[in-house]
């Protein structure tokens, strides 16, 4: 345990992997942890021999429910109603508003010290809160704050232990009965399916909470970490920051403001996002922050290239990829 405090955790795991191999069982206090450090073994675990045994409302969410009709229907609902490119686009104004609020918060600090990590974390969860529940109330605000505070104290905590009670779903239902309008949030879709009886088995409130939990868990930490990493490394590398800024200005100068309409043209910014920790066996100069390595690389983060799987892979790949891309891209372009 002493070594955990002597060096960065990723350096420690790298050194241990060199000595003990690509699959290790470590004990952090009373917590057993399996560490996988090679693309080959990641493929075996995530794609060839899938064996997740993580409790998530009795495996009733999208990510950890057993394969079968129930899982297929849940995945279809989420992919069509929330995570499809078309559906994600309907939340464009939410992302732009939340990113605008974050940028204003940064400017308001006027160079003083503040917790940027928490602000970025709040950004990712606030966007998902809007998408999942549409309207914000005291319970959703408390939920976001609770997750943020817990996450700052310990990594790897169980979101299921922190999820709010059924009262939140009840408030959503009351809002619908009172004529609450706006875009249809995912929880509304699930409540409608629950009432219609179209699902193969009865969709319970617990099932709905499990799905909403997955929406918050799907890529939120990965998004926040990617933004923190990119901001930190571009600050440390002024030439890289200038190149990214020049690219953003060249694309958006004629519009006067940065929005999502042309994010796909920011090739260098995308390369910055993709420049994360790599295995020395597969990447040259892994400790060097070099976004250019991704400009012409025929590799993607969608789970087919096991040298690079920030969102997981296989049939259990994180369903929130489509949500993460525009959020991270827009925030960094504004930065």
Automatic annotation (TrEMBL):
The UniProt record lists the keyword Cell wall biogenesis/degradation? no
Q: List keywords of the entry alphabetically.
A: Heme, Iron, Membrane, Metal-binding, Monooxygenase, Oxidoreductase, Transmembrane, Transmembrane helix
* Residue positions binding heme: 318
Listed cofactors: heme
What name goes with this protein?
A: Tabersonine 16-hydroxylase 1-like
Q: Per its record, what are the GO molecular function terms?
A: heme binding; iron ion binding; monooxygenase activity; oxidoreductase activity, acting on paired donors, with incorporation or reduction of molecular oxygen
Q: Which GO terms describe its cellular component?
A: membrane
What family, per the record? Answer: Belongs to the cytochrome P450 family.
State the species of origin.
Answer: Coffea arabica (Arabian coffee)
Q: Tell me the domain of life.
A: Eukaryota
What does the UniProt entry say about where the protein is found? Membrane
Q: Give the bilayer topology.
A: Single-pass membrane protein
Q: Do you know which InterPro entries this protein is assigned to? A: CYP450_71D (IPR052306), Cyt_P450 (IPR001128), Cyt_P450_CS (IPR017972), Cyt_P450_E_grp-I (IPR002401), Cyt_P450_sf (IPR036396)
- SUPFAM superfamilies the UniProt entry points to: Cytochrome P450
Among PROSITE patterns, the record links this protein to: CYTOCHROME_P450
